[in-house]
Structures are given as C-alpha cells and as structure tokens.
Design goal:
There is one protein chain. This protein has 9 helices and no strands. The longest helix is centred in the N-terminal third of the chain and has 31 residues. 63% of the residues lie in helices and 0% in strands. The radius of gyration is 23 Å and the shape is elongated. By secondary structure, the chain is mainly α. Helix 4 packs antiparallel against helix 7 and helix 4 packs across helix 9.
Length: 223
C-alpha cells in the first residue's frame, strides 16, 4: 500500500522536477549571459555599439537562440508521445508490449478519485485524453514561430550592419539559414530518442524507471 503524501516532505515528493528546474534555470541564465557577451562582441566587430542586457533580452539573437532549442525539445516529446501509441520496438524499455494491451490502453472509468474531465465526460474527456500530445504540439508550434521571428530579426540586424537589404518574414522563410538552424536541432533530438529506444534493449541502469530490470531478458519488451 502506498504511503500517504504527508509521510514525505515536499522536497522528497517533488525532487525530480525541482532538480531539473534548478538545472534549467542555471543553464538558461548561463546561456543568456554568454549569448549577450557573444552578441556584443559581434556588434563591436561590426563597429556598432554594444547593448545592455535588458535590450538583449528583446533581441532577435536571444529570442532565436532560446526558442530554437525549445522547439526541437517539444517536437521530440510530441512525436514520442504519439508514435509510442502504435509503434513498437522489440526488447526496448521504451516500447509497449508487442501483443498485450497495457494499462494506458484501457478506457477511462469515472470514479471519485478520477480527474475531473473523466468524471465530466463528453467532449471534455475527448480533449483530456489527448491533452498531453496536444499540449506538446502547441508548445512546439509556438516555439517554432518564436524561433522564426527571432531568427528573422537577428538576420535583418546583420544585414543592416553590412549595409545590405533586409527581408520580410515571408521572404526569410525561403532562406537556408533559418532551416539550417531548425534541422540541426531536430536531427539531434531524433537521434537522442533513437538512442534510448535501442540502448534500453541491451543496457540497464539499476533503479531507473527508464530501464528494464537488470536481470530482464534482452528481448523482453517494456519495463
């Protein structure tokens, strides 16, 4: 029987998300400061004035660099959530069973402990049962749009510093620079997913929910 929540401290109950939040904030601050210094050096090299950090946070350089990375992460998670519904990989801890239905496949049953959308039913339940994938795709498209906007702004700043014509955002969509920024991030995310799908067939990490038990056969599929 599971222990009641009050038997564990807040930090223990939420340690995984808190640690990742802390790591995110530290690395995000580091990215911001180093990006600001890098951009200012680029401006000085072009005989332009350096900008304050508050100005940098509104610049295309910062917006593009930030959302370029967010975009690929959210796309990775969105596709992973949806593709693992139907696709399988024999022996992988990241795959559902080849033959048997699993708990995640069962139809939701209203109960006093079920989330409110399950008890409500109807279109609210339909939306809720697909809410994880929809949210990741929404975050992806928002991040992609922000990446496009920031990259376009940064490109036009570079053009102006070189006394070259600027582009409309529609014209910039045809530039290889934007798609190079996009695809270099996407491919790395797909490689990381492929890696954990295949490596969990033969490799183990005792105690991790992302691994099969250490003594599990290689061809045993799922956790």
């Amino acid at each position: 029987m599971a222990k009641p929540l009050k038997s564990h401290s807040f930090l223990y109950r939420n340690s995984l998300s808190l640690v990742f939040l802390f790591i995110f904030l530290i690395t995000f601050i580091a990215q911001t400061i180093t990006g600001w210094k890098t951009h200012n050096q680029e401006l000085l090299d072009e005989n332009a004035q350096a900008i304050a950090l508050s100005v940098y946070l509104q610049s295309g350089h910062f917006i593009s660099a930030t959302f370029e990375n967010f975009e690929s992460e959210f796309l990775q998670m969105a596709l992973y959530v949806l593709l693992t519904i139907k696709l399988r990989q024999i022996g992988s801890a990241e795959s559902k069973s080849l033959d048997e239905e699993e708990e995640v496949d069962r139809e939701p049953v209203p109960s006093p402990d079920a989330p409110w959308p399950v008890r409500k039913g109807g279109w609210i339940l339909i939306l809720y049962r697909n809410s994880l994938g929809l949210t990741f795709f929404t975050l992806f498209f928002f991040s992609w749009g922000m990446h496009l906007f920031g990259s376009w702004q940064d490109y036009n700043v570079s053009q102006m510093l070189s006394n070259k014509p600027t582009l409309t955002i529609g014209s910039y969509l045809g530039e290889p620079r934007f798609w190079f920024e996009t695809f270099q991030n996407w491919q790395s995310e797909f490689l990381s997913v492929l890696s954990i799908v295949l490596l969990t067939i033969y490799l183990r990490q005792k105690g991790s929910p992302e691994s099969k038990p250490v003594d599990a056969p290689h061809m045993e599929t799922g956790k």
